[in-house]
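hey m, so remember when u said the tokens were messed up on ur end? i reran from scratch. heres the input so u can diff it against urs
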Amino acid sequence: MTFTFDATSSSQTDLHKVRQRIGDVTSTDAMLTDEQITALLSDYDDWREAAFRAVDLIVAKLARTPSSRSAASLSATTALLDTFKAIKSDLKRELYSTAAPVLVGPNEISTKDSLWDNTDKEHPIQKRGTFTNSQD
């Protein structure tokens, strides 16, 4: 049951990235342990996917946490749930949105296209009856 996060550290490990992205950066009020996040990182290739699944764990944990009968406690739990649902929605959009295709390689016009796009060339104009045989 360990917790490691150092905001002043220059090293950006995947564990650090997950904690920072989901906002679990306070050791006195940690939502997930290092072991839980490390297990998620080993299950998923991308740290963003691990963060997405970590938010699932936190939401499930908050949903089953009994709250006292006070309105303030219930309101705080509801606010936390809403916050983590918003984080999950943002992560889902980052992970699963389709990006615009990237053009790779030279962007040149082919020889045929350049001939057809030449404004100096006049295209033949055909009129009705041009190729009909007259029977005089």
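this time it looks ok to me. The radius of gyration is 31 Å. if urs says something different then somethings off w ur setup not the seq
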